[in-house]
Amino acid sequence: AAPIARAIKSGEDKIVPVEKPETIASAIRIGAPVSWKKALRAIKGSGGTAETVSDYEILEAQKLLARSEGIFVEPASAASIAGLKKLVENGEIDRDEVVVCVTTGHGLKDPDIVVKTFEKPYEVDAELKAIEKILGLALQLT
Predict the structure, then answer these.
(1) Which phi and psi (to 5°) does residue 35 adopt?
(2) In this predicted model, what pLDDT tens digit does every residue of 51-92 receive, in sequence order?
(3) Cα distance between residue 108 and residue 112, in whole Å
(4) Domain definitions of the chain by residue range
(5) SS3 of residue 106 by DSSP
(6) Closest Cα partner for 101 from 41, 29, 30, 51?
(7) CA atoms within 13 A on the CB side of 16
(8) DSSP letters of 37-78?
(9) Which of the following CATH numbers is that of domain 2-135: 3.40.50.1010, 1.20.1560.10, 3.40.50.1100, 1.10.3080.10?
(10) Cβ atoms of 42 and 49 closer than 8 Å
């Protein structure tokens, strides 16, 4: 939740609740997290960090996972990848560092965002020639 990330980034010991949080990541759209004290303690105690990300960054991370790994996650799960990407770009995490991102929320938990924002899939007949044509390929079969 953004209030936790903001508290970590500013070095505060308390969160500042957000009255009406807005994000496409509905599972983390939490303006006043109940267990914020535990979360801050866990992050600080483990030497961890937290980062805020925009909806655009979340959608880009969701696309990246789908295209590069074949993993379809909900926006809240993609937020962890977006945060990692941002932390690497800002030099807070080294590119060769081992990092675990929890992405357990499947994309079908929240498919509406994908339907509204991603490109429509191509429809083709179930024939090799049709697939070759749409992909712009000329497959050589012997």
Answers:
(1) -100, 35
(2) 999 999 999 999 999 999 999 999 999 999 999 999 999 999
(3) 9
(4) 2-135
(5) strand
(6) 51
(7) 7
(8) HHHHHHHHHTT-------HHHHHHHHHHHHHHH---B-HHHH
(9) 3.40.50.1100
(10) no
Structure tokens at 12: 């505060």
Q: Model pTM?
A: 0.79
Residue pLDDT, tens place only, 18-55:
999 999 998 889 899 999 999 999 999 999 999 999 99
Question: Are 53 and 83 within 8 A, CB to CB?
Answer: yes
Closest Cα partner for 50 from 99, 105, 7? 7
Decide if 8 contacts 40 (C-beta within 8 A). yes
